[in-house]
């Protein structure tokens, strides 16, 4: 059974979540993503899913209260059930140390949040296309 929610987006900023929701709708894929506002709620949500319901891609903000993106990434990669999910760090930070640290922890890539409509649409297309490729590979 093909899943509708191929992407889990974890971002504490409601505007960033809504913007990405609009971009997926613009791409004709309004139902592709599930959104969580914190690392804690995202981990709880993932725990409720069976293995064949897991997202193929997690888009993870770095700068969040309580559990930051780096901590969430570490917890995901230490968990047998979640360790193989592709995680993309999605941040405004251009800090090379943070980037290197997250890549070493197992992040697939580090994407800087866009500053224009066109860039935002491009990022949404990248997330959607990557999730489709990964979902097909795992069938």
CATH homologous superfamily caption: Response regulator
Main β-sheet description? 5 strands, parallel
* CATH structural fold name: Rossmann fold
Helical content class: 40-55%
H and E order: EHEHEHEHEH
Q: Could you say which structural class the secondary elements and strand pairing correspond to? A: alpha/beta
Give the N-terminus to C-terminus distance in angstroms. Answer: 9 Å
Number of strands: 5
Report the average pLDDT across residues: 93
Q: Give the CA-based shape.
A: globular
What CATH first level would be assigned?
Alpha Beta
The total count of helices amounts to 5
Widest sheet, order of strands:
2-1-3-4-5
* Radius of gyration, whole Å: 14 Å
What is the CATH architecture descriptor? 3-Layer(aba) Sandwich
**Which spans have pLDDT < 50 for at least 5 consecutive residues?**
none
Description of the structure:
It is a single chain. The protein is of the alpha/beta class and about 140 residues long. It has helices at about 15-25, 40-45, 70-80, 95-105, 115-135, and strands spanning about 5-10, 35, 55-60, 85-90, 110. Strand 1, helix 1 and strand 2 form a beta-alpha-beta unit. Helix 1 (about 15-25) crosses helix 5 (about 115-135). The N and C termini lie close together (about 10 Å). The mean pLDDT is about 95.
């Amino acid at each position: 059974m093909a899943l509708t929610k191929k992407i889990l987006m974890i971002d504490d900023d409601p505007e960033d979540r809504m913007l990405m929701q609009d971009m997926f709708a613009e791409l004709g894929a309004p139902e592709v993503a599930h959104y969580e506002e914190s690392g804690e709620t995202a981990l709880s949500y993932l725990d409720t899913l069976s293995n064949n319901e897991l997202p193929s891609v997690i888009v993870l903000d770095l700068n969040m209260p309580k559990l930051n993106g780096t901590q969430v990434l570490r917890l995901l990669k230490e968990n047998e059930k979640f360790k193989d999910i592709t995680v993309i760090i999605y941040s405004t930070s251009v800090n090379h140390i943070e980037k290197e640290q997250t890549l070493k922890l197992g992040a697939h890539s580090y994407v800087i949040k866009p500053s224009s409509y066109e860039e935002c649409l491009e990022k949404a297309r990248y997330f959607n296309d990557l999730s489709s490729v990964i979902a097909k590979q795992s069938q």
